[in-house]
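Propose amino acids for all 171 sites.
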């Protein structure tokens, strides 16, 4: 479901611009790009390792969605540590620990800005409001949802029924 401000205009997803990535197994990999997922629905989860809401709600919701949709080749999941504070705590190593802790076999990115100590490029490009934050990008690379709150069960149902209605991760 598009946010009300977005209702009458398409909001195209900008390039991720995240330089540090690991693959589903935690191995360093090339920079992940939006075009790597052409034709797929993308679910991007933004977090910080020290964020209590990320651990109590966001990551468990992501875990639930990844598990429910693991056999669906039309949906790609990514997680990005979007650092905007606490650079000494929200490190690349902590990102790796988070991937392992939750057993998430999806690409993870670490974005602390171009210099490693400024606001995340992804946060600037997608105008996220902090963490935890979910962004849903459809097959046409339009942002169809961006926000803190998500109902994982409703999101799973919507993603399983893609094409039947609009994606609505909250109802």
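Proposal:
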């Amino acid at each position: 479901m598009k946010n009300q401000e977005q209702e009458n205009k398409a909001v195209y997803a900008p390039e991720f611009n995240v330089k540090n990535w690991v693959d589903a197994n935690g191995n360093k990999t090339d920079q992940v790009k939006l075009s790597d997922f052409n034709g797929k629905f993308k679910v991007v989860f933004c977090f910080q390792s020290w964020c209590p809401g990320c651990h109590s709600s966001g990551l468990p919701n992501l875990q639930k969605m990844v598990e429910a949709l693991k056999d669906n080749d039309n949906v790609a999941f990514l997680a990005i540590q979007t650092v905007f504070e606490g650079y000494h705590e929200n490190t690349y190593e902590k990102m790796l620990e988070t991937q392992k802790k939750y057993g998430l076999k999806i690409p993870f990115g670490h974005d602390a800005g171009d210099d490693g100590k400024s606001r995340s490029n992804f946060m600037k490009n997608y105008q996220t409001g902090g963490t935890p934050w979910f962004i849903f990008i459809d097959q046409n690379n339009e942002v169809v949802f961006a926000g803190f709150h998500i109902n994982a069960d409703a999101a799973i149902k919507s993603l399983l029924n893609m094409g039947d209605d609009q994606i609505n991760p909250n109802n």
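The chain is about 25% helix and 20% strand. The beta strands are 20-22, 28-29, 41-47, 75-82, 108-111, 133-137, 143-147.
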